[in-house]
Design brief:
One of its GO terms (cellular component) is cytoplasm. The chain is α/β, with parallel strands linked by helices and about 350 residues long. It has helices at about 15-25, 45-60, 75-85, 100-110, 225-230, 240-255, 260-280, 310-320, 345-360, and strands at about 5, 65-70, 95-100, 115-120, 145-150, 150, 155, 170, 190-195, 205-210, 285, 300-305, 320, 335. The structure holds 4'-deoxy-4'-aminopyridoxal-5'-phosphate.
């Protein structure tokens, strides 16, 4: 068996140690004679898995007690759609800062039921930069301000938390959660699909300041109600136990590796190495994002001649470097280098890119 270095944007590579542990526990979880995925979510075994996952995520992210943590289905897109239903009155203003494809998607989910105001929009500049904070047109009475901490396709990342005053800040951290220390107390809501930095697709994490759950929101079914999910311990209906369990193993792995401080250092080294290869290539490779907001998680880049894209991908694959094709919206290449991508993987990619340039430059 040989595992490639997998640069997929999500579902993304998982820590090998986690996959091995899941493999070892697959048929018989902790001696109970069944897999965890075959047991009731309300049984003592899975309740333990769920409690540990929450405790471990709280420890990893230093989540204060006045924040609730939910593990839900529906991905980040459903979380986006539930924001106004839970936190905005019908027709109330909500502010969106759009810095890439996913910010635009978030906006699309809410337009029908609130007065969505685009407070800032990076689209005219091709999402290559983040509009300066002093240009944002925030509403005075918004229910919340939404932004995308890291744009997975465009490779644009906020390097600090925007100050929006007393209005609750909602951050889509799908592709950068637990990649570095984060002051959770600055947020109203943090949400993320798991399939990049937290584990497998199929479970998402929503971290909500508890006082926001007292807002009336809008008429909605119980299953769309975060208050009800909290009361039901994220088990209003049958939860995605396998995904939740795997995410829990990822949390334990991250804690054992040294937590978010350690991953922040690794992620800084990994992204600096790749951007260095690109910037020092004399235009052979190109990343168009303003240096100050380049993503540490997703590195989109273009070859100077599109005709080289195919040979680049084919030779990379032969070298054991897979899933480097860029998103169809942007073309070119993209290297996603989340926590579970080892530094050796990025070093191998850097070496391959330099060698490829030697051969084709
Ligand atoms: N937000 C961001 C930043 C994303 O990267 C993605 C998925 N790539 C989404 C939202 C949508 O997530 P999901 O597919 O889990 O709905």
């Amino acid at each position: 068996m040989s595992r490639a270095f997998n640069f997929s944007a999500g579902p993304a590579t998982l820590p090998e140690a986690v996959l091995r542990q899941a493999q070892a526990e697959m048929l018989d979880w902790h001696g109970v004679g069944a897999s965890i995925v075959e047991l009731s979510h309300r049984g003592p075994e899975f309740m333990q898995v769920a409690a540990e996952a929450e405790a471990d995520l709280r420890a990893l992210m230093s989540i204060p007690d006045d924040y609730a943590v939910l593990f839900l289905q529906g991905g980040a897109t459903t979380a986006q759609a539930l924001l106004p239903l839970n936190f905005a009155a019908p027709g109330q203003a909500v502010d969106y800062v759009v810095t890439g494809h996913w910010g635009k998607t978030a906006l699309k989910q809410v337009k029908h039921c609130v007065a969505a105001n685009v407070a800032a929009n990076g689209e005219p500049g091709g999402y290559r930069d983040i509009p300066a904070r002093d240009t944002w047109q925030l509403s005075s009475d918004a229910a919340y301000v939404h932004y995308t901490a890291n744009e997975t396709i465009h490779g644009v990342e906020f390097r600090d938390i925007p100050d929006v005053g007393d209005v609750p800040l909602v951050g889509d951290f799908s592709s950068s959660i637990v990649s570095e220390p984060l002051d959770v107390s600055k947020f109203g809501v943090i949400y993320a699909g798991a399939q990049k930095n937290l584990g497998p697709v199929g479970v998402s994490v929503v971290i909500v300041r508890r006082d926001l759950l007292e807002r009336a929101g809008q008429p909605r079914a119980e299953i769309l109600d975060y208050r009800a999910h909290l009361k039901g311990e994220s088990m209003l209906n049958t939860p995605p136990t396998w995904n939740w369990y795997l995410a829990g193993l990822v949390f334990k792995w991250m804690l054992a590796e040294g937590g978010v401080t350690e991953f922040a250092a690794r992620n800084a080294r990994k992204s600096a190495l790749l951007y260095g290869v690109i910037d020092q290539s004399g235009g052979f490779y190109r990343n168009e994002v303003a240096a100050a907001v380049r993503s540490r998680m997703n590195v989109p880049f273009f070859l100077h001649d599109e005709a080289l894209d195919k040979p680049f991908l084919a030779q990379a694959q032969e070298a054991g470097l897979i899933s480097l094709k860029g998103h169809r919206a942007l073309g070119g290449m993209r290297a996603s280098i989340y926590n579970a991508m080892p530094e050796e993987g990025v070093q191998a990619l850097a070496t391959f890119m330099r060698d490829f340039q030697q051969r084709h430059g």
